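pls design
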């Protein structure tokens, strides 16, 4: 049986590919998808999750909408990167995959309590839903196998000089997750910037020749153009699929244990992840942190997921 997983996401171009990878690979048992405000409003990220599942033929996986704002402070979105829809590029038809009537925390609660095995939580947006879950249902901790998240960085940020977007959107939620005592794996910008969707990478998707591959090519093309314009990169880092790729192939990413603290009050550093790679603070490690990525193996997994799902929906 595959690893039981709940994706908590804010689609988002890179989230879309993480959904595809989780649904396509037999090593993953995708139990549910929950959404949160992040790359766009929660209404748009929820619609986008349904759009992705519809075009990829992903059925039977409940999708529920979660929190529409952080634990504290105003909501912020990343329209400059993901566009007004949060998934700009292709023209999507109305989704046919339904929205689960439950709120995200209820869906996660029900899934954790009903599944026979502890479940891995994979949050790839702001950590608001996960922190709210830990606060509301502390007795469910033993039903959580681990938390594998995309967020933070061992170095510079991408929203402020110090802070990565997901953590910056809700630092208090991130602080709760990192201090939860649960097994946490952090895959941040320092890792995801090793898997950039260059023109050569995008051409591999186009060569598949299926309708789904065409949508993926358009998604990556828009995403890459935004990163070239905003950050001057040669393409877009495909951040979020590092999480599921790590679960599928644990040797794909080199991890090191480290103490990770989230800055909550700094004038210039709020939302920064302070990663003690050298043990200078004397604090015990509370996370495994991604350092090096085998980019070739990563892209092979993503391309194959699109191939498999595209074959089934062509």
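designed seq:
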């Amino acid at each position: 049986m595959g690893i039981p997983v709940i994706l908590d996401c804010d689609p988002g171009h890179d989230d879309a590919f993480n959904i595809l990878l989780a649904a396509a690979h037999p090593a993953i048992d995708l139990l549910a998808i929950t959404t949160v405000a992040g790359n766009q409003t929660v209404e748009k990220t929820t619609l986008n999750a349904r759009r992705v599942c519809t075009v990829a033929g992903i059925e039977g996986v409940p999708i529920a909408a979660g929190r529409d704002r952080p634990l504290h402070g105003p909501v912020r979105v990343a329209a400059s990167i993901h566009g007004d829809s949060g998934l700009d590029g292709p023209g999507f038809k109305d989704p046919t995959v339904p929205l689960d009537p439950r709120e995200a925390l209820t869906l996660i609660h029900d899934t954790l309590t009903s599944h026979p095995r502890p479940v891995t939580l994979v949050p790839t947006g702001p950590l608001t839903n996960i922190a709210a879950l830990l606060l509301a249902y502390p007795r469910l901790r033993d039903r959580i196998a681990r938390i594998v998240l995309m967020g933070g960085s061992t170095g510079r940020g991408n929203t402020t000089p110090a802070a990565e977007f997901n953590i910056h959107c809700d630092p208090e939620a991130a602080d709760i997750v990192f201090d939860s005592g649960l097994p946490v794996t952090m895959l941040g910008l320092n890792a995801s910037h090793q898997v950039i969707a260059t023109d050569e990478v995008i051409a591999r998707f186009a060569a598949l020749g299926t309708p789904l591959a065409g949508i993926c090519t358009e998604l990556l093309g828009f995403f890459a153009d935004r990163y070239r314009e905003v950050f001057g990169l040669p393409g877009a880092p495909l951040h979020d699929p590092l999480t599921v790729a790590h679960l599928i192939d644990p040797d794909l990413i080199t991890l090191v244990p480290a103490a990770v603290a989230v800055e909550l009050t700094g004038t210039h550093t709020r939302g920064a992840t302070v990663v003690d790679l050298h043990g200078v603070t004397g604090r015990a490690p509370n996370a495994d942190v991604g350092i090096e990525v085998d980019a070739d193996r990563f892209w092979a997994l993503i391309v194959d997921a699109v191939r498999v799902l595209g074959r089934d929906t062509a």
